[in-house]
Amino acid sequence: MQKKLSEFTDQELLDEAKKMKSNSIINAVLIGFMIGIVVYSIVKHSLSFLTLIPLFLAYKFFNSSKKNEELEALLKERNLK
Fold first, then answer.
1. Is-contact 10 78, C-beta < 8 A?
2. Is there a domain that residue 37 lies in?
3. Percent helix, percent strand, percent coil in the chain, to nearest 5
4. Residue 32 lies inside a defined structural domain of this protein
5. How many domains does one find in the chain?
6. Contact 75, 13 (CB under 8 A)
7. 21: domain range?
8. Cα gap 25→74, rounded to integer Å
9. In the predicted model, what is the mean pLDDT of the chain?
10. For residue 1, what pLDDT is reported?
């Protein structure tokens, strides 16, 4: 069962922060790749439904940072990092 971030110990929070950092790097690469696909598709053809799929996926990756913000606030509150 998944615990809430506020129930984590200090070490678990630090481990979670490391995971979040690596996940954010991977998300940034994927967002860049998706935006590259969109730009290539628009230049080569035109704006179509298939162009909007990578845009939607990039938005989903970019929008998933809410847990990161909560984790950062909790780390700052506990004077960790």
1. yes
2. yes
3. 80, 0, 20
4. yes
5. 1
6. yes
7. 17-77
8. 21
9. 78
10. 37
